[in-house]
Each structure stands twice: as structure tokens, then as C-alpha cells.
Design brief:
Layout lengths: L3 H11 L4 E2 L11 H10 L1 E4 L5 H16 L26 E4 L11 H4 L18 E6 L6 H7 L2 H11 L4 E10 L7 E4 L18 E6 L10 E3 L10 H7 L10 E2 L7 E5 L3 E4 L8 E9 L1 H4 L12 H21 L22 H8 L10
Parallel strand pairs: 1-2
Antiparallel strand pairs: 2-10, 3-4, 4-5, 5-12, 6-11, 7-10, 7-12, 8-9, 8-11
Helix pairs in contact: 3-5, 5-9
The structure holds 2-oxoglutaric acid.
Length: 367
């Protein structure tokens, strides 16, 4: 239900001056008013990036993925008794949680980056025990998702923000089913460089957040503008001075239409409330980093990321550009400079589907 917190948050969001179409200047650089607004607030909503057939294909494939999801976290078959989609991959493709719960807050998940618990609500009568809340590594589950990853304007944005040698991160669809969606406790994403004296506003890169259905203040991700500049934030203390309430006073909802794509700084304080609204949110999140932030870093318990691993994972960018060019041949295609001399190795076909795309997520670059 919408109340004053939502209405005032919406007003603050719309007054930030950080939304509009992707626009480049005559030199091909992202317009400086856009980059200025991004660096000032920590996010920017690019409106109308994906539409028409492309949006329909994404929605249809996403529906197909959900229809082939296992029936619960302990099942391996879908509602029709078929093996779950992605059964051939080494890593699980789905995460489940109890409806309207907070699965992470106050836990040690992901390095303890969710220190404060969100308000949890009782699921409605007849609710399932669990709902799908994340679909992991969607590039290997949805060809439309791979094509989105190769979007020329989005990749140009990644180049402008992180430099031409930018690297991948990981990809997840966050699903917040209508009336059942679990919350995501307040957090900052980065896990590595917080104590680095060279930490700056862009050290942990950014995520693209593409909305399949659009968002409202009751189902959106909320962010606290400007907090990407503050280093590691004491989230528990922020909630405590707010009287223990998870409704942080300066937060704003990331309001988007279907097909809008936001860029969201991974250092910004962000989270989402349980989705009691009648509208489902599905957000395709795919991030990119500066190469200098990734090279030599350890992810969650991994060996330091070296050039070979970064090269292998970056092939997904080149592959996605190729997959997109086959579907949209009249569109300009992005040239990813680190692999510009290897185009023939990264053509999109059955061989690269098997050898490059399958289990690509084993090489995710998490910082
Ligand atoms: O979409 C959400 O509710 C959470 C997304 C998020 O926390 C993230 O992408 O880091």
C-alpha cells in the first residue's frame, strides 16, 4: 500500500534530475550532464532503452524460464515434472525465499554485507512456502538476455564509466512476485576495496538494472542518493538513529518503465522492501567493473583474478555483441577493444554456445 513515505520518496526521486534517454555528444561521449548526474547521485535511469520485439522476447523467455524453474529449493523438476531448466549447468540457476521474508538481513550472507534486518510480514493465506527470488547467470538461460548484454549503447556507457578495458562482473534477475516478493536488506555491494586508500566513487563499478515490467514505489529498489561517496557505511547505526525503522529517511525508489535500464553504483546504499503490491518486479542486473579494480583481487575465496581469467570471462561481451548482430543486423555494433583482435574466436554459434557460454559463470569476477 502506498503511504506518505512512498509519495514523498517518489517526489524526491523525480526531483533528482537523473533520468532520460541515453544520449551521446558529437564525439560519441555520454553527455556530461548525464555523467555528472550519475556521479552526483550514484544512479541514473535511462528511459526507453529496450522496446518492441526485443522487450517482448525478453518477457517471453523470462516467462519460459520461470515455467521451467524447479518447484522448490529442494526439487529438481518443474511443475510439469520436467527437469529444471539449466540442469546441465554446474551452478544452480535459482534462489528461493519465503514470501515477504528478509532472507539476508542480519545474516553472514555475502560477507555479512546485510547487517540490519528488514521488517518481515506474514505471507497471505494460500501463499506457497517459497518463491523464486533470483535467477542466476541468465546469459546462459535466455538468448534474449545474451543479446541485451551486447547492447551497443549500454556497452558504450560501460566504456565511458569504467574505461575501454572494462570487465564483466556477474548477472542475476531479481524477481519480486506480486504480493509475495521477499525484501532485500539495505546494503552496499562491494566486498573488496573499502579499506583501500585509493578508494573513489567508482572503485566497485556499477550494475545495469533493466526492468521487464517497470517499477512503482511499492515494488522498486530504493537507494540513498549520494551514499556511493561515503565509503563503508554503518548501516545498523543508520537504522538505529531512524528509531529502528528500515524506512530510511533520504531514500528514493528507482522508478522505471518497462524497458528502462538504470545504472546503479555498486557502492550506493540500496535495498528493497517486501513486495506487497499487486505488480511483479523483474530486474535484469548485469554489472561491469574497471579492470584495475579486478586484476589481482580475490573474489569470495577465489584465487586472485589474473589476465587469463579476465580474458576468458570478457569473451562473453564479444559473444553477446555477435549474438545481437545476428538478431539485429542493421544496428551499429559495439567493438570491445580488449578483444578487438579476436572477433573470429567469438562468433556466435553452436560451438561457442557450448565452449564459451556454458558455465561461463564459473569465471564471474566478484569484487
Ligand atoms: O533488486 C533488488 O531488490 C536488489 C538488487 C540488489 O541488491 C543488487 O543488484 O545488488
Amino acid at each position: 500500500m502506498t503511504d506518505n513515505y512512498h509519495v514523498e520518496g517518489e517526489q524526491r526521486a523525480l526531483n533528482l534530475g537523473n533520468r532520460g534517454p541515453i544520449e551521446f555528444d558529437a564525439n560519441g561521449s555520454l553527455r556530461t550532464d548525464i555523467t555528472d548526474a550519475y556521479w552526483r547521485t550514484g544512479f541514473y535511469v535511462f528511459e526507453g532503452v529496450v522496446d518492441g520485439d526485443e522487450l517482448n522476447e525478453l518477457v517471453a523467455e523470462f516467462d519460459g524460464v520461470l515455467a521451467r524453474a524447479p518447484t522448490s529449493s529442494t526439487s529438481q523438476t518443474d511443475t510439469a515434472g520436467r527437469p529444471e531448466i539449466g540442469a546441465e549447468f554446474e551452478q544452480p540457476s535459482f534462489r528461493f525465499a519465503k514470501p515477504l521474508s528478509d532472507p539476508f538481513g542480519g545474516s553472514s550472507a555475502l560477507g555479512g554485507r546485510y547487517p540490519a534486518k528488514m521488517a518481515e510480514l506474514a505471507p497471505p493465506d494460500g501463499a506457497p512456502d517459497e518463491v523464486v527470488t533470483s535467477v542466476f547467470s541468465f546469459l546462459q538461460l535466455m538468448d534474449s538476455g545474451l543479446r541485451l548484454y551486447g547492447h551497443p549503447q549500454l556497452l558504450s556507457v560501460a566504456e565511458q564509466i569504467n574505461g575501454p578495458d572494462f570487465t564483466p562482473f556477474t548477472e542475476t534477475i531479481w524477481v519480486k512476485p506480486a504480493g509475495l516478493g521477499p525484501s532485500t536488506a539495505w546494503h552496499q555491494d562491494g566486498t573488496t576495496h573499502w579499506d583501500d586508500p585509493k578508494l573513489d566513487d567508482g572503485t566497485h563499478g556499477f550494475n545495469f538494472m533493466m526492468q521487464l515490467y517497470g517499477t512503482t514505489s511499492t515494488n522498486a529498489l530504493w537507494v540513498v542518493p549520494g551514499t556511493h561517496k561515503l565509503g563503508k557505511i554503518d548501516i545498523k547505526a543508520r537504522v538505529a538513529v531512524n528509531g529502528g525503522s528500515d524506512r530510511l529517511p533520504d531514500a528514493v525508489p528507482m522508478l522505471c518503465g518497462p524497458g528502462d535500464v538504470a545504472i546503479c553504483n555498486r557502492q550506493i546504499l540500496h535495498g528493497s522492501f517486501a513486495n506487497t503490491s499487486p505488480a511483479t518486479r523483474a530486474t535484469l542486473v548485469f554489472g561491469f567493473h574497471r579492470r584495475a579494480s579486478v586484476l589481482g583481487e580475490r573474489g569470495f575465496g577465489t584465487e586472485p583474478y589474473d589476465e587469463t581469467l579476465i580474458h576468458e570471462r570478457s569473451r562473453l561481451i564479444a559473444l553477446a555483441v555477435e549474438a545481437r548482430a545476428q538478431r539485429f543486423p542493421d544496428e551499429p555494433r559495439y567493438l570491445y577493444q580488449p578483444l578487438a583482435h579476436e572477433l573470429d574466436d567469438n562468433r556466435w554459434n553452436d560451438i561457442t554456445r557450448e565452449q564459451v557460454l556454458k558455465n561461463y559463470n564459473l569465471n564471474d569476477l566478484r569484487i
